[in-house]
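User: quick one, fold this
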Amino acid sequence: MVPLFVPLSLGYAGASCYGPVCHGKTSHCCAERPQPEHAWPAPARSIRAGNAGDVEQLCLQTAEKLGLAIDFRQTNIEGELISWVQECRRRAKGIIINPAGYTHTSIALLDALLATDLPVIEVHISNIHRREPFRHHSYVSRAATGVICGLGVGGYSLALQAMTDLILDEDDQ
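Assistant:
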């Protein structure tokens, strides 16, 4: 099995790809934020509300339908997130990441993602462009093949499908 990183780790059984799905700081406590409208917009609440465990379950269900195996990861530590990304260079075919607060601050995360030379899908539960102006800029987007934001936790399912398609397209070439 060839690895893929989606700060969670996923694997695609039939096409021999594997990778993680990862989350940055604050993504574990979305339902507890003082501004819950940013953490779980109405569509997200109707899709699935709760915490990282709920997101993990949604990803596991989606991965099973797609024939993927997932290793779901979450951390509040920037260095740990960067280490996970660096691991992908040797074991992954792609990365799905919700960098949370590091989206707007971490050049080190950007550099790590660029160094992997892997497809990257950036996911945000809320629409970062409808939030405070400082959140409109994402360093991670520079490394991303695609960005999904504002669709609630359902964005993770879309990201898993998109990554599967990207990997299969790459394998066909």
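User: anything notable?
Assistant: Helices lie at 36-39, 42-47, 52-66, 78-91, 107-116, 154-172.
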